[in-house]
Amino acid sequence: MELIHIGVFTVFGLLYLLVLPARWRTWALFIGSILAIYWLQPTLNIRWLDYSLPTATLAISVLGWLITQQPQEGGAKLAREDWVALGVMTALVLSLTLTRYITIPVELTSRPPETWQVALCLLGLVSVIFALRRRPIRTRVITVGLFFLVCLFIVLKTDGLSRWLSSILRTQTGQDVALASSIDIQWLGFSYVAFRLIHMLRDRQNGLLPNLRLREYLTYVIFFPAYAAGPIDRVERFSEDYRHVGMLDGNRANFIALGFTRITIGLFKKFVVADSLAFFSLSAMTFGQAQSTGAVWVMLYSYALRLYFDFSGYSDIAIGIGILFGIQLPENFDRPYLKNNITAFWQSWHMTLSNWVRFYVYSPLSRALLKRKNKPHPNVIILICTVSTMLVIGLWHGVTLPFALWGLWHSIGLFVHKLWSDRTRKWYRELKQHPRLLQLWQVTGVLLTFHFVLLGWVWFALPDIEATVRAFGMLMGAVR
Amino acid sequence: MRGWEWLTESRYTLLFVVRVFIKAIVLFIAANLIFAIVDPIPLIGQISIYNLFVPGRERLPYGESSAAYNLSLNSLEAMFSSHTVSRKKADNEFRVLVMGDSSVWGVLLDNLDTLTGKLNAASLDIRGKQAEFYNLGHPIMSATKDLMLMDYGMRYQPDLIMWLVTLESLPYPKQIEAPLVQNNAARVQPLIERYQLQLDVNDARFVQRDFWGRTLVGQRRALADWWRLQLYGINWAATGIDQLYKDYEPRSNDLDTDISWQGFTEANELKENTLATDIIKAGTQVVGDIPLIIVNEPIFVADGVNSDLRYNFWYPKWAYDRYRAIMQELAAQNGWHYIDLWDAISPSEFTDSPVHLTPQGSAQLGTLLGDIVSEWAATPN
Fold it and tell me: Coil, strand or helix: which one is B128?
């Protein structure tokens, strides 16, 4: 989100709270979110893609909704409301193609394909819906859906594969294949959309997913304040707020006060603090120019703080805008750099992502290992689950060796901390009798944890192993 | 909301929200009014992390590349506060300010290879004091810009000033072309009046800020530039980079047949008063009692096609010869300490323009000027 997006969303939030009749609010969220995902999508080099990617998000989400419908006699049933929602969505998607022919004041999407081409694709989607609506949805279909999402995710997050996809798309559009690059396929929000869809598919498999109408389901998946960078809400929590947006009127002042405060704090964090720190944060370029150990340390501290202020500021803005629309998104950060151990750090850094992987990677894996006949030692189970979980978090940022090593770095930290806290529990309890010592211990813990996380960011900030090894060398005082 | 209890536990009313908005608007208007009345930009410009938390810059900020951690800005206060010249002068320091254009600033040269870098490396002892040379060159060809910087630089207690000039800085139309000059009307206009320069004090190119232009909103660019300069200070300290050294196209050795220069075509058209020599005269007055050495800086002398007509792609021979003659005459008439080094550096030591030097060329010039300064210092007053 750029400043213009934030400004417009804030103004619309005020109108939504103060002017819009309560009965239209869920429709406003639905229509607003559809238009917003086109507007937020950056312009891409491949023809039609900045229109096609949000459209694909909608199509995948509709199919996701269809296969997560509660099993009923005779298959999934589409209520009248669902057909209306589908009709509104189709009308909006088609209307956006008209920007090829007419100029509107706000460019929601830059280069849509021709209307008839989109109409044909949408007809295909509606046919699939017709075909599926009378058939009972089998678990196998959900598994296929999960597999598809994970594969798509891997393709988009792997440089070589996304370049390959880019060259295919360039061939289709008659563009120069030699210019194919992974940045051609910058699918805004897909990481978050995929996690929300996987969450619902898995919950459907486990019988935990509440019954949702298409409009509610789609609004949850593409809710515009959280579309680009989270937080990753849980659908049952989102639904609770969503179903009450018609009843905000007695509380409008609080929503405005809270929303504005969070947006203002977020703007300051992101656009003043983080953007200032960005000037001298660690990157391949600045590291290549650093002249001394001290300089690399300054760059690394700056990187760590920038990352926090940028992401937590963004989360504040998303939460603030969400509040203006009556949806209270979950918190994503809780002073993570002030935690005195690495486990507490991960309970307070990008909390919605950590919770997601805990639910859908750590817990199922540990349950599966515990159910085995030849159960491994509990510590081995913890190690396997921690490494797997942290690798998922690492690779979620991009399928590269440095991100994997970053995940491994944190999993080692978490595992060592687990062993340490198991062995020192009694000693720690006794330490509580000595407040001064306890305080000293906690301060030491904060410093150690912060610096452990800080050194981990080296993997995150630099693009290859050679650079990270050199960076660690310089941080430890070795001459370049 | 965890951590947000201070905010969420209160109950607000729409009236409260409206009051907050009104107060915010009033504060915003008040801040803008105060800003417009007080005009704190010069004061803010003097606040600097340079020479305090990070080393001072060795040349004035200039450039538009974020990769070089440098920027062009218009606040002389901010520019000089970021420079080593604003350090406290040591008791045993003999302070020499070196003024000039891009050749002094050191385009394509590392700080150690600039003219002042080379002069400082020589560790000259002048009248029992350690000579420190400060690079106050700025890559714009305008004698007026030099005069303005020199006038400002006088507050840094120089013991000697060296001013490197060339013909390209002297056409009148060029004097107020630079944004740095246009945006410092309040400094340049008094100089025009005081020294009765042949420049229009009401030139439309001078940027006069109206009331709105002086508000916080109107001055946001100046504030952002100042802030960016401070942030780049950390990069400067960490990397020592203030310029991108990229491949360049070497100055041409083969030249055009056109022998006009700035609209002039004959030597007799170029006179003392058709060149901005009055600005050089003003420079000799601005410095007051401080000694000033004026140097005609070395130029590239081509030997390729049409080199019988032109010295290089800037200068036809007739125009440059005439300029040198005028400068010699003026120096003799006014008793200036004037040195003409126009052909002192071998043509192979010029890079992308007729005045930009290689590190070796810069070293040669440094040695020459070092000798001149030592000789001057040895001469009784």
Answer: coil
Which residues of A belong to the active site?
397
> Which of A252, A276, A328 minimises the CB distance to B14?
A252
Report the candidate in B122, B86, B190, B182 with the shortest Cα–Cα distance to residue B368.
Answer: B122
Alpha-helical runs (H) found in A75-185: 80-97, 115-133, 139-157, 159-173
Query: pLDDT class for A101, splitting at 50, 70, 90?
Result: confident
The ipTM value here is 0.85
CATH fold, domain B39-378, is Rossmann fold (3.40.50)
Domain ranges across chain B: 39-378
Residue B372 has pLDDT above 60, yes or no: yes
User: Could you tell me the pTM of the whole model?
Assistant: 0.90
B6 pLDDT higher than 70 = no
Average pLDDT across chain A, whole number: 92
Nearest alpha-carbon partner for B252 in B315, B298, B297? B315
Position B271 confidence tier, pLDDT thresholds 50, 70, 90: confident
Q: pLDDT of B118-150, one tens digit each?
A: 999 999 999 999 999 999 999 999 999 999 999
| Residue A454 near residue A305, CB atoms below 8 Å | no
Q: How far is CA A141 from CA A64, A66, A148, A204, A209, in A?
A: 10, 11, 10, 12, 16
Q: Give chain A's contact residues with B (Cβ, < 8 Å).
A: 252-254, 256-258, 261-262, 276, 279-280, 285-286, 289-292, 294-295, 298-299, 302, 328, 331, 334-335
By residue count, chain B amounts to: 381
User: Measured between beta carbons, which residues in chain A are less than 8 angstroms from residue B10?
Assistant: 257
Q: How many CB atoms lie within 10 A of CB B205?
A: 13
Element housing B220 (H / E): helix B220-239
Q: Degrees (nearest 5) of the Cα angle A165, A169, A174?
A: 145
pLDDT, tens digit (0-9, with 9 covering 90-100), for A43-72: 999 999 999 999 999 999 999 998 888 766
For residue B40, say if its preceding peptide bond is cis, omega within 30 degrees of 0.
no
**CA B266/CA A264 separation, integer angstroms:** 66
Q: Tokens representing A203?
A: 């919950």
Task: State in Å, rounded, how far the first CA of chain B is from the last one.
Answer: 78
